[in-house]
Specification:
Blueprint: H1 3-12, E1 16-22, E2 31-36, H2 38-44, H3 60-65, H4 68-77, E3 81-89, E4 94-105, E5 108-115, H5 117-175, H6 177-212, E6 219-222, H7 223-233, H8 235-241, E7 244-247, E8 252-255, H9 257-273, E9 282-290, E10 299-306, H10 316-319, H11 338-348, E11 352-357, E12 363-370
Parallel strand pairs: 7-9
Antiparallel strand pairs: 1-2, 1-5, 3-4, 4-5, 6-8, 9-10, 10-12, 11-12
Helix pairs in contact: 5-6, 6-11, 7-9, 9-11
Length: about 375
Amino acid sequence: MSSEFYQAIVDTLPLGVIVLQTKNLADSDSFYLTYANQASETLLGNPFRTMIDKPLADVPPIAAIALPAVYHEVLRSGTPQDLGEVYYQGVDSEGYFRVYVSPLAEDALLVIWANVTEQRQVEEARKQTELALAIYNRKLEASNRELEEFAYVASHDLQEPLHKILAFGDRLRSKYHDALGDVGQDYLARMQNAAMRTQTLINDLLDLSRIATPGQPFEHVDLNQIVADVLKDLETTIEQQGGSVIVSPLPIVAADPLQMRQLFQNLIGNALRFHRPDSSSVVKISSQGKDTQSNAHALYEILIEDNGIGFEEKYLDRIFQPFQRLHGTNQYAGTGMGLAICRRIAERHGGSITATSQPAMGTTFIVGLPVVQPVGKAED
């Protein structure tokens, strides 16, 4: 093929390519320009091809990219060199360029450069992002410490007055029952019920705050065993309602076992609590695989289906908010924290929770848990 063909190929490269030659191997200042491709002019904004056969000193951009002594050393040693990133600022162009120098013949050098300004900007942006994330993580750690301090205060200082209210209330009931009369007994019962509700609310707040702090390392958890343990705890409730819980085979997942138990305790407990007065509770628990985009993002979907009172789906977002209730405490007990805790647990495990429902037609809660999950590392 002709030299014009190879010339056309080199001209299409997005790299600056020039050839320097010397007439005196002993003189590092004797280099002159013998070739330049089209990209060399575009990248540095200099008409190199009008400077062919001119000394290096008359081609300022090339002298700025590397000192003549560097070119001389590469030619003398016969070893190519990566000169790294060099900043160049000319009349029509500026930026960072990655420069390579290689021997071409005993008296000639090949100099190649690429504009890496955009890559450098991306790298700088990445570093700034990493710095911002590091700052955010430090703030998050500080927030977690504050939550831990809150948990300590709530579990000791806030609970102590409630214990005293309940204890002295019991003494009043046992020692001064007759003196209180019916009205006094009613007031006392209301006071103790309010204290117990406050105690339950504090415990729920503690549960929510503990999930926000780094938990136990994930381990392989058999959800069949978790559900079996939860059903033992709820055995009396199920018998009293004449209800039933049907469990299909469930997967083994990488998770915090205590939080998985808490998750199912809340969801199954809700399914039993919010039953229709005219029918017994029937709760079905099953699972299915769901591939989201790729196997790396595959999920197990855990379904908890009941035949209870249901709700209108326009309230779907609301039910996962702390303290949110769709029914009064006189109808169904609870603090409105259970589903907020479930959502926090699911998110901590890299999963999700949602529901489908219709009034008087029951509800199905869907918990998504990743198939692939790191084991032996505490997740924040």
